[in-house]
């Protein structure tokens, strides 16, 4: 069974790559033609759907219940609209864009690499170990993803990811709920985990604000989002971002419900970000596992190949990228119980301080040194509050301090 599953996954990846190469021949690179609403939505979703959509959403609902699931979805929805307003506000100010993205690019990539390593560990578990043949096939497939990334035809890759993601989020919950009925899940949650159904806990809703900071920062720092925004027809931009946010909402909402199946069926993952994987292994059948593994591999290889191909640091590019991977691997080794949501929350101490800087930098250029001092001081204060009042409060205090500093700085510079 295990061998059959592995072969099925590899064959699926090969056939998907053949399909993408065929579609790629008839599509031009990003930037040659303006996008309408349809292409704009696909391009935006291709940049917004990733590993965390399928792993962190279920972890959030597993740890925080209904509040975690709705909070994750609402934060992502709001960040789409906020980033659109931020891009519209900064339209034409390319100097400020390059300064802001350049200042935080390394942290942005570091978080992505850590998440990719954590997801890679899960995929290896789903493969039931890697022998030489499987590893060689995966390397060949990965090399094909690098070739696709070098061609810079982002729309083709985005279309590939969007179609596969929508299929996965429709079929996998369906397969699971065919085996574990909805009444069984509801009664199981009521018996084993009534805390998951609590929605009148105001402090828990702070997760919406914290995840909003994280999603907004990543969308703003993603240079492809800037390119897509510029290439969407001006009259279609607002509609493209709005529709993209509501289509994206369906994905984490669908996958996140698997955590309720886990609690109702007493599925206890070793680490909380593995909850969706464990549920699919037990109730999704061989087809469900294969579909989920293929989706995760596509997300993982797309992310890593894009990181390898992207030129961000000039002559020192290769050395910095290698150093980033090494540091990320060391972090994962030193903290074996680190989860994807933990990584997102930890980096949110930086992102919550960055958001007010990005928003208020439109008309006043802020020196890089001042930016980093503000971020570090705000993060330190936020961590101090976290130790006494909790994670969510610490991150929000971090944001408020950075906001106050930037408002004062703006008023002084305008005088």
UniProtKB/TrEMBL annotation:
It comes from the Bacteria. Keywords: Membrane, Transmembrane, Transmembrane helix. The chain crosses the membrane at residues 6-23, 35-58, 64-87, 99-120, 126-147, 159-182, 202-221, 241-267, 287-309, 318-335, 341-360, 369-387, 393-412. The keyword Transmembrane applies. This is Sodium:solute symporter family protein. It comes from Siminovitchia acidinfaciens.
């Amino acid at each position: 069974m295990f061998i059959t599953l592995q072969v099925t996954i590899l064959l699926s990846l090969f056939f998907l790559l053949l399909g993408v190469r065929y579609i790629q021949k008839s599509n031009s690179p990003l930037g040659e033609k303006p996008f309408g609403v349809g292409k704009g939505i696909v391009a935006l979703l291709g940049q917004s759907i990733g590993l965390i959509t399928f792993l962190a959403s279920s972890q959030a609902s597993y740890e925080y219940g209904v509040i975690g699931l709705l909070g994750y979805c609402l934060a992502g929805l709001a960040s789409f609209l906020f980033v659109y307003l931020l891009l519209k506000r900064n339209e034409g100010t390319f100097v400020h864009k390059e300064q802001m993205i350049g200042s935080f690019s390394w942290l942005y990539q570091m978080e992505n690499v850590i998440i990719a390593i954590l997801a890679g560990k899960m995929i290896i578990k789903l493969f039931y170990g890697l022998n030489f043949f499987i590893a060689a096939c995966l390397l060949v497939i990965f090399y094909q993803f690098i070739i696709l990334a070098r061609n810079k035809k982002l729309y083709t890759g985005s279309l590939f990811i969007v179609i596969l993601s929508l299929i996965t989020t429709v079929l996998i919950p369906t397969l699971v709920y065919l085996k574990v009925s909805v009444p069984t899940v509801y009664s199981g949650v009521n018996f084993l985990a009534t805390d998951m159904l609590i929605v009148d806990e105001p402090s828990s809703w702070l997760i919406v604000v914290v995840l909003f900071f994280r999603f907004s920062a990543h969308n703003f720092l993603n240079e492809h989002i800037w390119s897509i925004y510029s290439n969407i027809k001006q009259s279609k931009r607002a509609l493209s971002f709005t529709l993209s946010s509501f289509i994206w909402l369906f994905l984490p909402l669908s996958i996140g419900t698997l955590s309720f199946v886990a609690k109702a069926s007493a599925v206890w993952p070793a680490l909380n970000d593995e909850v969706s994987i464990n549920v699919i292994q037990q109730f999704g059948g061989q087809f469900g596992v294969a579909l989920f593994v293929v989706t995760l591999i596509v997300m993982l290889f797309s992310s890593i190949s894009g990181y390898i191909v992207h030129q961000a640091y000039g002559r020192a590019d290769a050395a910095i990228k290698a150093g980033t991977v090494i540091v990320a691997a060391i972090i994962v080794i030193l903290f074996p119980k680190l989860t994807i949501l933990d990584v997102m929350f930890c980096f949110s101490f930086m992102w919550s301080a960055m958001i007010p800087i990005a928003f208020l930098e439109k008309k006043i250029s802020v020196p890089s040194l001042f930016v980093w001092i503000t971020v570090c001081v705000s993060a330190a204060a936020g961590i101090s509050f976290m130790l006494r009042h909790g994670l969510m409060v610490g991150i929000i205090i971090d944001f408020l301090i950075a906001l106050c500093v930037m408002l004062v700085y703006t008023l002084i510079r305008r005088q």
